[in-house]
Write a structure and sequence with these properties.
single chain; mainly alpha; 48% helix
């Protein structure tokens, strides 16, 4: 158990010293989301169940 505690303490110390900055643009986020299957409601041409046409 002592080894796990020491490992957790060392891990926390290393994580506090790590600097992470993300400079990803909105376009890149949308591009990656679309590659994973994201779509907007206006792009769907199918009505499901009790959905009403707007």
């Amino acid at each position: 158990m002592l080894g796990i505690g020491i490992g957790l303490i060392l891990g926390v110390i290393f994580m506090f010293s790590y600097k992470y900055e993300s400079t990803i643009s909105d376009y890149n986020i949308e591009e990656k989301a679309r590659a994973l299957g994201m779509h907007y409601d206006g792009e769907c041409k199918v009505l499901f169940g009790k959905d009403e046409e707007k």
